[in-house]
Amino acid sequence: MKRTLLALTLGGLLSSTGALASNVEVYGVLDYGLTWQQNDAVDGTSESSLKMLSGQYIGSRVGIKGSEDLGNGLKVGFVLENGFATDTGALGQGDRLFGRDARVYLDGRFGYLSFGRMGSLVGGNGPYARFGHVVSPFSCGWGDLGGHLQVVSLGYEFIDNAIGYTTPKFGNVDATVQYSFGTDVNAYGDGTEGKSSVDRLLSGAVRFQNDALMVAAGIETINHAQPSASEANLDDAVSYNLGANYNTGWAKFFFYTQIFENYTAAAKTTTFSDAGGVDGFGINVGIEFPALNGTVKAGFGYGDFEASRDAKLTMDTCQTTVGYLYSLSKLTTLYTAANWIHSDYSDAYAEAHPSAAENVYAVTFGIVKKF
C-alpha cells in the first residue's frame, strides 16, 4: 500500500510540475554495493557473509524539491525525500514514505528556517548537519565501514517534529539551532508529542568557514522519554562535538571528536549499549587526495566507552579504513573500501556479551547512479 502511495504521489507531482513552477525538481540516487564482512567474536566463534546492500556510499533516495520567490530576498520552498533500499525496493527510515526529508522552509535575509522531518545537526544529512561528510572522508560511515559513528555515540540520524534555523553569515561565521518536539513518532508508544513521555532533542552549533578551512563546534542534548528513562536510571543525554576540515590544494584533511554522556548506545558496528546509558569519547581523523584518476580516502578512529552506571562495563575500539572513488561521469561513480575494526571489552562485558565482535573485517565495492 505504501509503495503504491509513493508511486501515485511521485506521478502526480511529476505530471503537474509544469503547472506548479519551473524550478520544481525531481532527483535521486541509486546505490548498489557488494559487501563481504567477517566478525570474530570474543568467545572464539567467527562468521562471514557476502551481501548485496543498498546505500553503502550514499543513501539511496528519490526526492522532489522546489521553491517560490516571494520577492524582497525571500523564498519559500519544500523538500520531500524518500529513502529506500535499491536491492529490495523496501521503504527506509522506519517504513516512512518521506523518511529522509519532509520540510517546508523560508530562506531570506534573516536566515534559513525549516519545519518538519529533517536530518539532525549532529549527523550527516540535510542542510543543518554539521558533523557528517564535512568532518570525515567517509562521512558517518559507508554502511559498516569507515566514518566516525564507530567511535562516537549513536544519536538520531533524522528527527521528526523539528524546527531548524541557521543565521545569516557574519563574516565567515554562522550559527545553527535545532529542536524536536518528539524525535521519533514510531517510538512514541503511549507518549505524546511535546511531553516528557517522548524523546525531545535540542542542539546548537557555531561554524567558521572560508575557502580552505571549516571548523564547527556544537552541543546536542536529548531528554529521554519518561517514565522509562527513570526506571532504567538513565539521565538526559548530552554530547560536545568539534569538527574541522582543511583543504591544502593537494589534499583535504578531516578531524572530528566527541565527548558524551548518557546515550543509549555507541559504536555503530560493534554496538556498545547499556540500559542505564553509555559515556565516552571518540576521535576520528582522515585524509583524501586525487590519485589514479580518482580520489583516495583513508581514516582512523578511536573510541573509549563505559556504562554510565557500571564502570566495570567498558569497550575500547579502533577503526582503520581505506577507500577509493572513480567517476565514470558526473552522475555515475564507482566506489570501494576496506575496513578493520578491533574492539577490546572488559571481562564483565565480555562475559555478559559472549557474541560481541572483537574483530570485524569488511570489503565493499559498488556503483552509484544519480539523476
Share of residues in strands:
over 45%
Order of helices and strands: HHEEEEEEEEEEHEEEEEEHE
Q: Could you tell me the mean pLDDT?
A: 94
Biggest sheet character:
16 strands, antiparallel, barrel
Computed over alpha carbons, the radius of gyration is 21 Å
Which bin fits the share of residues in helices? under 10%
Number of helices: 4
Kindly state the number of beta strands.
17
Spans of at least 5 consecutive residues whose pLDDT stays below 50 are 1-7, 16-21
**Kindly, what is the distance between the CA atoms of the first and last residues, rounded to a whole number of angstroms?**
26 Å
Described by the principal axes of the CA atoms, the overall outline is globular
Counting helices, strands and paired strands, the structural category is mainly beta
Strands in their spatial order, largest beta sheet:
1-3-4-5-6-7-8-9-10-11-12-13-14-15-16-17
Notes on the structure:
- The protein contains 4 helices and 17 strands.
- Helices cover 8% and strands 56% of the residues.
- The two termini are 26 Å apart.
- It has a 16-stranded antiparallel β-barrel.
- It is mainly beta and 371 residues long.
Short description:
The chain is mainly β. It has helices spanning 2-15, 17-20, 228-231, 347-352, and strands at residues 25-41, 46-54, 61-71, 74-83, 101-108, 111-119, 158-166, 173-180, 200-209, 213-223, 237-247, 252-266, 272-291, 294-307, 310-327, 332-345, 357-370.
How is the secondary structure organized here?
Layout: H1 2-15, H2 17-20, E1 25-41, E2 46-54, E3 61-71, E4 74-83, E5 101-108, E6 111-119, E7 158-166, E8 173-180, E9 200-209, E10 213-223, H3 228-231, E11 237-247, E12 252-266, E13 272-291, E14 294-307, E15 310-327, E16 332-345, H4 347-352, E17 357-370
Antiparallel strand pairs: 1-2, 1-3, 1-17, 3-4, 4-5, 5-6, 6-7, 7-8, 8-9, 9-10, 10-11, 11-12, 12-13, 13-14, 14-15, 15-16, 16-17
